[in-house]
Amino acid sequence: MKKFLVLMPLAALMACQSMPITPAVSPVSMVPQPLLVEVEEGQSPAILEQPVRFVNLKTADFALTGAWPQAEDGFPIVFRGGYSPKDFHGGQGAEGAYSLDVYADSIVVHTESDAGRYNALATLMQLVPVEHWPTEKGGALKLGFEIAPVHIEDQPRYAYRGMHLDVCRHFMPIEFIEKYIDNLALHKFNRFHWHLTEDQGWRIEIKKYPKLTEVGAWRSASQTGAYSEQRFDSTRHGGFYTQEEARHIVDYAAKRGITVIPEIEMPGHSLAALAAYPELSCTGGSFEVAHGWGVFDDVYCAGNPEVYAFLEGVLDEIMDIFPSPLIHIGGDECPKTRWVSCSKCQAEMARNSLKNEHELQSHFITRMERYLNAHGRNIIGWDEILEGGLAPNAAVMSWRGVSGGIQAASMEHNVVMTPGKPLYFDHYQYNPEEEPVAIGGFNSLADVYAFNPVEGVPAEYHAYILGAQANVWTEYMETSDHVEHMVQPRASALSEVLWLGAKRPGEDAAFREAMDYHVQRLKAMGWNYAPYEFEKATGDEAQ
Fold this sequence. Notes:
The protein is α/β, with parallel strands linked by helices. 32% of the residues lie in helices and 16% in strands. It contains 18 helices and 22 strands. The chain has helices spanning 2-7, 10-18, 114-126, 174-186, 211-214, 243-254, 271-276, 305-321, 337-340, 343-351, 357-374, 403-410, 420-423, 445-449, 480-487, 490-500, 507-524, 532-542, and strands spanning 36-39, 46-48, 52-55, 75-80, 98-102, 107-110, 145-147, 150-154, 160-166, 191-195, 197-198, 201-202, 218-219, 223-224, 231-232, 237-238, 259-266, 326-330, 378-382, 395-398, 415-417, 465-470. It has an eight-stranded parallel barrel, surrounded by five helices. Strands 1-8-5-6-4-3 form a six-stranded mixed β-sheet, covered by helices on one side. Strands 2-7 form a two-stranded antiparallel ribbon. β20 (395-398), α12 (403-410) and β21 (415-417) form a beta-alpha-beta unit. α4 runs parallel beside α6 and α8 (305-321) packs across α11 (357-374). The longest helix is centred in the C-terminal third of the chain and has 18 residues, at 357-374. It is globular, with a radius of gyration of 25 Å. Mean pLDDT is 94; it is low at 1-16.
């Protein structure tokens, strides 16, 4: 190397000498923390002064490679097979294991799966000093930094590591959906639950039923301020995603290791659809897309064959757009008021020997499940789908605490834990007097970091707990900046406990120390995270 420097042209030599090299990032700053991180004492770091080249990796399928300047003779980042993970999680680890070794002359990843490749690339990105991250979307890393000589072995504990976003109460532009997914990819989340239909708006184009977006995507007013004030503006609000845009998001997420799970609500939370097609109700309408928040009595008529034909037509197009094995069908908060007095619903109950309206809802959900099963898909729904009998192959999202999840697991059904306490990120995270108006509740960063998806679940049912998800309901979030504020830093905490299955060594104090650096990554992404915890820490140190 010294001989090479002597032979270099003087100008180039002076340029090299004047270029400062940014020291390596401490590996303990990564979130989620990998399971095994060893800094190889006495070894030289990798110094990235030149572009890289990815070996044995189809970079077009892995979006996280796009930020790296690349050249055919660049610094090699080599992907190989042949990695069998240690028994990190007592035999309960999920797909996506990898090892990563940083040498002075190369970086080598071993993994047997695409999931492992996505995870390794996310880890590698976090090993880059944040000063060198792209300054704009689609930009490139700035060269001239070290990566510590580490040996990493890693594997996620849970197969389902999810984040949800409601775009119905307040519509969010497609550019923000991309940004949301970028944040998930950095944290190794692998499921994006996209809540697309509601009383307050229908957000996905269905070509067979154009009035769903012509009428159902728009409301003439919205509730504002605290719920108790019952104030409304007079501003038209709405929007929807074309099928082309939705396909783009599916592809965008897939190239970041994330499956998009669409939610099409049924039989309740359907007022936007009924405003477009009132004949699908029990009363025949007419209806408006809901202005306010809450639960409404008018739902799909469970005794009308046209309702099932309509939903099958909707699902045909949804399945064509979204390849996810799971389709979310809602199933929550469905009042039975209209069904009790509806002759069609009562006749449907009599034909099928159903004892009550809860069994009628189970009948409705089971019928839709059969349709999806016949097309190679399975349903997942909120825990109300347990009432009246659980559909045979359904998975359950347990939001009213964890008891519904435990019940479903005891019936040998798969479960995603998403209890309101602490995984509803529309709840306050800090002193409500200092926070923007929220629905209520209180889920702090520490509450989220203390969450364990299998706490209270008998050991014999652990295998049915796929993982967990945080939910972001947007009644009180009118802008994407507000969504960002409510999501982070709590999503970082959830990502770590779902990855490790527990807190990191050193627990809360060690996690907070990592977050002090990690929030710089969030800043580099342009993420409007809630700063309270970090301002408090700075103030404590000053005192």
